[in-house]
Write a structure and sequence with these properties.
single chain, mainly alpha, about 0% strand, globular
Length: about 170
């Protein structure tokens, strides 16, 4: 099985891509690998961070990759439940693993990354699907995320309200 990192990439066009795009791509790779190896994504991330500090030939893990992998791992049940609720005649387990990883990152960003506009999260996911998955995946990913975008503001507002209420409960 070919991992996401082994997919051919035009180096010229890859250099033009932004740092966050590269971080998302690496996060997809890590989530994909974690699922294939049946290991916790956060443990795999820690393994890669450690490897990068010991071996200079291994690229360091970008902070945003770390944020994405940790975020998806911490909120996996809600992210997966959200994705599954918008699949028509499909089950999450039947999707290509790379599509699951891409959708998980995008849904997490839509729900938690306040500095990422929803259109950017969706566009990045579609671009990753174009680069890494099947010909049908970009439109599929776009369709699912188009529905998630509609509920994302409510999810963000609920999370903000919960965070705001916590200090009062602790007082």
């Amino acid at each position: 099985m070919v991992t996401v990192a082994e997919q051919p990439v035009d180096k010229k066009s890859f250099k033009k891509l932004g740092t966050r795009h590269k971080a998302r791509r690496r996060a997809v790779d890590l989530l994909f690998e974690a699922e294939a190896r049946d290991v916790d994504p956060a443990d795999l991330l820690d393994e890669r961070v450690d490897l990068a500090t010991r071996d200079q030939a291994v690229a360091p893990v970008h902070a945003y990759t770390h944020t994405l992998v940790e975020g998806v791992a911490d909120d996996l049940d809600r992210v997966d439940g959200t994705i599954e609720s918008y699949l028509k005649d499909w089950e999450l387990s039947r999707l290509p693993a790379v599509d699951r990883a891409i959708l998980r990152i995008a849904v997490w960003e839509l729900f938690h990354a306040n500095d990422v506009p929803p259109v950017v999260a969706v566009d990045e996911a579609v671009e990753l699907a174009k680069e890494l998955s099947t010909d049908d995946s970009p439109s599929f990913v776009n369709g699912v995320l188009g529905q998630v975008v509609l509920v994302a503001p409510q999810v963000r507002a609920a999370a903000a309200a919960t965070r705001a209420a916590r200090p009062e409960a602790d007082a």
